[in-house]
Design a protein that fits this description.
This is Fe2OG dioxygenase domain-containing protein. This protein has about 375 residues and is of the alpha+beta class. It has 9 helices and 12 strands.
Length: about 375
């Protein structure tokens, strides 16, 4: 068989872009496709074979993501040290853990999931008005934010909310507004506690990471994964790392999240009331590779909808203050592995590259 010519490749690219544009213009997302009654997924959702899950790569059920229990954090010094040690090990070897007894009420977590579901299954006009790929918008709805940078689309729709000092809460859809605002209010103290523990785990003063304003901005990414008629051909979310400092993930009971650990894909089994936490690219950069930002993905499924809310904690978007490896961690034996970068530049680089590769490699020294 003859190798494809550049012209053939260009025609294929133009064809995919045309399909992306036609899908995008509906402003109905993946749910719109499902509501139309399709029995086969559109071709532009079909992932390359090499990127699809393989049964040989799946870890045995006995391999489980670490659980960090905060219940005894104020009990005594020994309990505190034990939690720090468990967190240190999880951050170094897994990059993921499930946080329990974090003081965010389960009833509120359930309300957040309910609000996301009602938004996606509610008034279509509300979704259409919010539909946008403009990353400067504080609140937007889209299917596959980086759609035009992808070789194949993921089977999900997403509501994005950028919480900073200029967000007008009334821009958030009414059905999930109160739950989002209350969840953010309750989550920020948990983030402060986590940053304290991470600082101590790195051998730094307990307030070091908090003083870096690494939770100054919070990006809510609320995913809705409709049931898929051909889940073996696509992905809910392709393999990626997060562009955050730390990510808190609230997931429903359906599962589907997997992380790559020791060359095996490990299921992150849902625990009622737990928050999944993972180290983001910016913390791997700041810790000079001491803590790891781990690849993860979400499987497509005939079951659904699956609903989750990822909260990306990122440094303040200060154009004058670059972000790099923490100087107190560096030495002749541990030189910096990354150059300094503005948080905004890192996020732009991440969005422009698409999934399936890490933006960290762009900033290696």
């Amino acid at each position: 068989m003859a190798m494809p010519t550049d012209t053939t490749s260009a025609c294929q690219t133009n064809s995919i872009l045309k399909e992306f544009k036609e899908f995008d213009d509906t402003k109905a997302g993946v749910k719109g496709l499902v509501d139309s009654g399709i029995e086969k997924i559109p071709e532009f959702f079909i992932q390359p074979q090499e990127l699809l899950p393989k049964s040989s790569e799946v870890a045995p059920p006995s391999l489980q993501v670490p659980i960090i229990d905060l219940e005894a954090i104020h009990k005594d010094a020994d309990s505190y040290k034990q939690i720090v040690q468990e967190l240190k090990q999880a951050s170094e070897s897994w990059g993921f853990f499930q946080l329990v007894n974090h003081n965010v009420p389960k009833a509120l977590l359930d309300e957040v999931i309910k609000g996301i579901k009602e938004f996606n299954e509610g008034n279509k006009d509300v979704k259409e008005k919010l539909y946008s790929r403009d990353i400067k918008k504080k609140v937007s709805f889209a299917s596959n934010l980086n759609l035009y940078q992808m070789s194949a689309a993921n089977w999900r729709d997403t509501l994005n909310c950028l919480f900073d000092d200029s967000l007008d809460p009334t821009d958030i859809p009414l059905v999930c507004r109160d739950a989002f605002m209350k969840y953010r209010e309750d989550l920020l103290p948990v983030a402060e506690t986590l940053y304290e523990l991470l600082s101590v785990a790195l051998g730094l003063p307990s307030d070091h990471i908090r003083s870096m304003n690494c939770a100054k901005t919070q990006i809510f990414v609320a995913h809705y994964y409709p049931p898929c008629p051909e889940p073996q051909l696509t992905m809910g979310t392709s393999t990626h790392t997060d562009p955050s400092f730390v990510t808190f993930l609230l997931q429903d009971s359906l599962g589907g999240l997997q992380i790559l650990h020791d060359d095996h894909w490990v299921d992150v089994t849902p625990i009622p009331g737990a928050l999944v936490v993972n180290i983001g690219d910016l913390l791997q950069l700041a810790s000079n590779d001491k803590f790891k930002s781990t690849k993860h993905r979400v499987l497509a499924s005939t079951r659904g909808p699956r609903i989750s809310l990822a909260t990306f904690l990122v440094p303040a978007f200060d154009k004058k203050k670059p972000f790099g490896p923490i100087k107190e961690l560096l030495s002749d034996k541990n030189p910096p592995l990354y150059k300094e970068v503005l948080a905004t530049d890192y996020l732009k680089s991440y969005v422009s590259k698409g999934l399936n590769s890490s933006a960290l490699s762009y900033f290696k020294l």
